[in-house]
Specification:
Strands 1, 2, 3, 4, 5, 6 and 7 form a seven-stranded mixed β-sheet that branches. By secondary structure, this protein is α+β, with helices and mostly antiparallel strands. The termini are far apart. It contains four helices and seven strands. The protein has one domain.
């Protein structure tokens, strides 16, 4: 190959490779989701009632309010002030029959991605649905609060979209 051809090839090849959809690895998707999680300061969350026993023995200065809650906004018991509406992600086991506990914290917590478990195509070629497991980070709370609030890993889905400058988080997907 002549030197001029080599220079043209070296200049044009990255442009050609950049024109198609870029692949999205699990590690790269995890980085995007972790950056999104770091933006969200959470002070209200829901726990199952079985976690309440860890929190009722005092020593919970970072918990402002705890109140029985139900996840259905159409439930008549909300209007009758018997329960509050559950906040945030609803953990497994919290239903209209088995109320949870809405907890309001005095400190903000964040969530973090434990693992990206799958990536599938979205509605168009520049979109991907990312499935992952996640958990709250309660490390700045007391040991007793951590024990009471820590839940098993939860699952989530998010839509990521490829823009001209790379992949970005768009929204949570039900």
């Amino acid at each position: 190959m002549k030197p001029v051809s080599l220079v043209i090839f070296a200049a044009v090849m990255p442009l050609l490779l950049g024109c198609g959809p870029k692949s999205l690895s699990r590690n790269f998707a995890k980085g995007i989701l972790d950056r999104e999680a770091a933006k969200e300061a959470i002070t209200e969350l829901t726990i199952p009632q079985d976690r309440l026993s860890f929190l009722q023995h005092g020593g919970t200065p970072d918990i402002k309010i705890m109140r029985a809650c139900i996840p259905d906004p159409a439930d008549i018991r909300l209007a009758m002030n018997q329960f509050s509406l559950c906040k945030g992600s609803i953990p497994p086991g919290v239903t209209w029959r088995q109320p949870g506990v809405a907890v309001t914290l005095t400190k903000s917590v964040h969530w973090s991605v434990h693992e990206v478990t799958g990536i599938s195509d979205g509605d168009n070629p520049n979109q991907k649905i990312v499935e992952y497991s996640w958990e709250f980070d309660f490390s700045q709370l007391s040991k007793q609060e951590q024990d009471g609030l820590t839940l098993p890993l939860q699952t989530g889905k998010s839509l990521l979209q490829l823009y001209d400058d790379g992949w970005r988080w768009v929204k949570y997907v039900p």
